[in-house]
Amino acid sequence: MASWSDFAADDPRLADGIRLLMQQYGPGFGYLATVRADGGPRVHPVSPVITDEGLFCFVIDSPKRRDLERDGRYALHSFPPEESDDEAYVAGQASPVTDRARISRLADVGRASPDADWRLFEFTIDVAMLTRRDLGGLDVPGAPPRRPAVQVWLDPRASHGTRPDSATTPDPWPPARRAHVTAA
Q1: Rounded to whole angstroms, what are the CA distances from 56 to 21, 62, 76?
Q2: pLDDT for residue 77 is more than 90
Q3: DSSP symbol at 98
Q4: Contact 48/57 with Cβ under 8 angstroms?
Q5: Which of 30, 32, 56, 143 has the smallest C-beta neighbourhood within 10 Å, fewest atoms?
Q6: Per-residue pLDDT tens digits for 159-172
Q7: Cα–chain center distance at 47
């Protein structure tokens, strides 16, 4: 899995677009999906910290932290903007940060309270997606809906598996790192 820095170096425009949506209200704000012990999904609001060093999240003692400690798979989705339906999404693996100097530096950047029982996790990236929807013309009677512009980045080193509907059908995404597609 790629670090945020690796991803941003490979596709800086996409990384900037995702960062802008995640930080549109100042500090980072998004929804974190984790995997419960029974395999089901769990969703939580979080404040991700994006720096040149990586993508991080301070997580208090909670079900989401226990999920990440047990099974580090995650998905992080931006909070929707007020003026559009644009969205940003990253998914990959979360792992605890143990380096004290790094934790201290990021706690200062993320303004994490030293009084809280939190742990710092770094989120590596397997897939990143940015969807832009031009809502202009939606109020014109009879005008066809505009299709969203979707940009997808896949970590070329990651295994992207198979389609959910078939264990033998190869992954539908092209083998390239980036795919700029328009979805219906």
Answers
A1: 16, 17, 11
A2: yes
A3: -
A4: yes
A5: 143
A6: 655 334 434 333 44
A7: 12
Kindly report, residue by residue over 2-25, the tens digit of the pLDDT: 999 999 999 999 999 999 999 998
Torsion of CA 129, 8, 26, 95, to 10 degrees: 80
DSSP codes of every residue in 129-172: EEEE---TTTTSTTPPPPPPEEEEEE-TTS---B-TT-SSSBPS
CA-CA distance, 37 to 12, in Å (whole number)?
35
d(CA 123, CA 143): 41
Q: In this predicted structure, what is the pLDDT of residue 173?
A: 41
DSSP string covering 1-57: -B-HHHHHHH-HHHHHHHHHHHTTTSS--EEEEEE-TTS-EEEEEE--EEETTEEEE
Q: Any idea what the Cα angle at residue 161 is, between residues 126 and 67, rounded to 5°?
A: 55
Q: Is residue 46 within 8 Å of 30, Cβ to Cβ?
A: yes
pTM: 0.80
